[in-house]
Design brief:
Layout: H1 3-8, H2 13-26, E1 31-37, H3 38-46, H4 49-52, E2 57-64, H5 72-82, E3 87-92, H6 105-110, E4 114-118, H7 123-130, E5 135-142, H8 147-159, E6 165-171, H9 174-184, E7 191-195, H10 196-202, H11 208-214, E8 218-221, H12 225-240, E9 246-248, H13 260-269, E10 270-273, E11 277-278, E12 282-283, E13 288-291, H14 300-303, H15 321-325, H16 349-352, H17 357-364
Helix pairs in contact: 2-12, 3-17, 8-13
Bound molecules: iron/sulfur cluster (2 copies).
Length: 374
């Protein structure tokens, strides 16, 4: 059986139609569902779920993309580190395309700086071993999903006695962001789709305080279209029954407790940072991790403190990424969407990241303008 065979069952049109019919039959009132993760936004847009599901189901996009929520000042940190002599900067995904205050890592690379976009974080160790006379800085990003990999890298760097590898840690945590959005009181959200990747590591228990505090059902959902539709059905049923609990649609990989070994590894090397300014959302206490003090020799923020800019920077004034990440607006509401701002010429991070809501709307949004609130 191939990977395609495994996935196809979760994309079966008949199964999708049957789920849509059940949701239509059972949904009695308007439900605003925030998909916390950009991966879900892409599934919703790619498979046209907004069009298949009844109008009463409204998807609202959330803060779950590590590229989208990275504030400009942190990107400027990466740019400053990459600009140091004798340095290789490595990072993941679309991070190199996100504009900082004056330039991007991609532009800097075109100017000759050694900036590497990695497929696997483990390559950092290899790069450090192959370049003993250079500083290798890993600009680590991601939610709870990727944090254990960074912890393994620190563990390996120590075990191998590497002295030329440093970590700029930007690992963010989902529950605090969701709590910040809900406590802000602006977003009208009745339920959440929880990202299953995150819960594979953390367990679904991390959402229990949110469900209880805000009386919002949370369904941890896989990323295939029938996963999302089954999760929506479970949300509809909870709301009909007056319930607000955490439910686990992705039982094939997620448990309540999660991966205890990975959690222990993360706790060994990282601790909560007191404050972190999320792009567009603002300061969220205890929502990010940093290296523990005993690993200061590996901490790029400490070792290279003198080159790091200290200024806080806001988005371009036309960009409404902040409101999109808080569930208050949709990409079609942005006046420069698809005009001054496109994936090849992005003004904000939501258009850069392949998981960003603006990028998803640009790629798949022509299917329908149902998402527009303007
Ligand atoms: S890291 Fe995982 S949870 Fe976060 S946006 Fe990517 S896929 Fe979603
Ligand atoms: S379309 Fe561009 S400028 Fe507008 S919110 Fe999205 S990323 Fe920002």
């Amino acid at each position: 059986m191939t990977e395609v065979d495994l996935i196809e069952g979760f994309r079966d049109p008949e199964h999708m139609k049957a789920l849509a019919a059940l949701i239509k039959k059972e949904c009695k009132s308007k439900i605003n569902i925030m998909e916390v993760c950009g991966g879900h936004t892409h599934t919703i847009m790619k498979f046209g779920l907004s069009q298949i599901l009844p109008d009463l189901i409204e998807f609202v996009h959330g803060p779950g993309c590590p590229v989208c929520i990275m504030p400009k000042e942190r990107i400027d940190h990466a740019i400053a580190l990459a600009s140091m002599p004798n340095t290789i900067l490595a990072t993941l995904g679309d991070m190199i395309r996100v504009p900082g205050s004056k330039t991007s890592l991609q532009k800097l690379r075109a100017e000759g700086k050694d900036i590497r976009s990695l497929y696997s974080p483990m390559d950092v160790i290899k790069i450090a071993q192959e370049n003993p006379d250079k500083n290798v800085v890993f600009f680590a990003i991601g939610f709870e999903t990727t944090t254990p990999m960074s912890a393994v890298l620190v563990q390996q760097a120590i075990a191998l006695g590497l002295k030329n590898v440093f970590f700029h840690i930007n690992h963010v945590t989902v529950p605090e962001a969701v709590d910040a959005i809900m406590s802000g009181g602006d977003a009208k959200i009745d339920a959440f789709l929880g990202p299953s990747h995150v819960s594979v590591i953390t367990g679904y228990k991390i959402y229990e305080p949110i469900a209880e505090k805000y009386h919002t059902p949370v369904v941890v959902s896989g990323f295939e279209p029938t996963d999302v539709m089954e999760s929506v059905l479970r949300i509809v049923r909870q709301i009909n029954e007056g319930k607000s609990v955490v439910d686990n649609e992705y039982a094939r990989a997620v448990s309540r407790e999660g991966n205890l070994k990975a959690q222990e590894l993360v706790n060994t090397y990282f601790k909560k940072r007191e404050h972190f300014r999320w792009r567009g959302i603002g300061d969220i206490p205890k929502s990010t991790l940093k290296l523990r003090a005993q690993y200061a020799a590996y901490d790029a923020e400490i070792v290279f403190d003198d080159v790091l800019p200290k200024e806080e920077l806001n988005d371009h004034k036309m960009c409404i990424c902040g409101d999109i990440l808080k569930g208050k607006a949709k990409p079609f509401d942005c006046k420069v969407f698809g005009k001054a701002c496109t994936p090849t010429n992005p003004m904000g991070s939501c258009m850069v990241s392949s998981e960003g809501a603006c990028a998803a709307y640009f790629k798949y949004g022509k299917l329908s303008l149902k998402g527009a609130t303007a």
